[in-house]
Amino acid sequence: MITALLHASLLVSDLERARGFYEGVLGLSPNLTRPNMRFDGVWYDVGAGQIHLICLPNPDPVAGRPEHGGRDRHTALGVADLERMKARISAAGLPFSLSRSGRPALFVRDPDGNALELVQN
């Protein structure tokens, strides 16, 4: 029986650029317990789970993905204040789209095209 989602791994091509998004825009802090691996990366604690950024070549095309991240594979994250997150994303000059279901949520892509859903919780 599955009991928890432990982490989501996202491929990135430029770790410093990705960290600028995840730390600078989303406000996450790196987990310093990541072991030494054969590739660069960073882990972020998100509630009881984690996001693992993995700096490796992406086998999936980034071009041609839907403009609205809700129509693409995506990772959903809960946020305490969606309006504040909208302001941070807007201040960074990043495009986003609101949930089309009417829920208090938005979709944004990281610099490598990974879609994130940010949901008010």
Strand order of the largest sheet: 1-4-3-2
Question: What's the number of helices?
Answer: 2
Strand content: 25-35%
Tell how many strands the DSSP assignment holds.
8
Supply the CATH architecture: Roll
CATH class: Alpha Beta
Molecular shape: globular
Order of helices and strands: EHEEEEHEEE
What integer is the average pLDDT?
96
How would you describe this structure in keywords?
alpha/beta, globular, 8 strands, 121 residues, four-stranded mixed sheet, 2,3-Dihydroxybiphenyl 1,2-Dioxygenase, domain 1
Short description:
With 121 residues, this protein is α/β, with parallel strands linked by helices.
Question: Can you put this structure into words, describing what you see?
Answer:
It is a single chain. By secondary structure, this protein is of the alpha/beta class. The protein has one domain: 2,3-Dihydroxybiphenyl 1,2-Dioxygenase, domain 1. Helix content is 17%, strand content 34%. The chain contains 2 helices and 8 strands; from the N terminus they run βαββββαβββ. The longest helix has 11 residues, at 15-25.
